[in-house]
Amino acid sequence: MNRLVFFVALGAFVMFSFLSSKAAEQQGSAHDFTFTKLLGGDPLPLSDFKGKVVMIVNTASKCGFTPQFKVLEAVNAKYKDRGFVMIGVPSNDFGGQEPLNAEGIAKFCELNYGVTFPMTGKEEVTGDNAHPFYKWAVKTLGFGTAPKWNFHKYLIDKDGKLVDYFNSTTAPDAERVTKAIEALLAK
Questions:
Q1: Counting C-beta atoms within 10 Å of the first and last residue's C-beta, which end of the chain has fewer, N or C?
Q2: Coil vs helix vs strand at 92
């Protein structure tokens, strides 16, 4: 009898795992989401980047990781002509480290780090009020992949599939990151 219960439970687990992975595959695409541009308030639909590899990074101007802006800009410059787009998403979710308004964020990023990649309006990236992209990302990749601090990075392939994430402590030009970018660009 115990063997029967074990095999039934195992079968249920395998079926649940299979259905969960299939559900994750059917959750749509990053191209289904729209942000708002930092300045002007115009829509910034991710569908505009179909056919490109995209990295989305939640940012803050008063964070210990803020110097990553310089590296993010360098990675963007290195790969943009090959079909890569970096997108910064300012957020005040962690330690109140993004107190600036849109104009302040734009000036800060340009003057201090020469940022040329698109920046969105300030968004929540965690919790019940998180931007829908961030809710989708966590649902797609799993709870442990949620941003835990500023400068958390999500990597999206040319078809809008969320393929990887990198924690705040992972430099934007770390070998793991650049290999992932280059592999997606080569497809």
A1: N
A2: coil
pTM: 0.86
Whole-angstrom distance, CA of residue 91 vs CA of residue 122:
5
Could you tell me which residues are beta bridge partners of residue 153?
57, 166
Q: In tens digits, what is the pLDDT along the chain, a chain of 187 residues? A: 566 545 544 444 444 444 444 344 537 999 999 999 999 999 999 999 999 999 999 999 999 999 999 999 999 999 999 999 999 999 999 999 999 999 999 999 999 999 999 999 999 999 999 999 999 999 999 989 999 999 999 999 999 999 999 999 999 999 999 999 999 999 9
Full set of structural domains in the chain with CATH = 29-186 (3.40.30.10)
Helix (H, G, I), strand (E, B) or coil at 91: coil
Residues 113/73, Cβ–Cβ less than 8 Å = yes
**103-140 as b/e: b if 16+ CB within 10 A:** eebbebbeeebebebbbbbbbebbeeebbebbbbbbbb
Catalytic residues: 63
**Neighbouring-strand partners of residue 37:** 120
For helices 175-186 and 68-79, give the axis angle rounded to 10 degrees. Answer: 20
Residue with tokens 């000036």, as numbered in its chain? 107
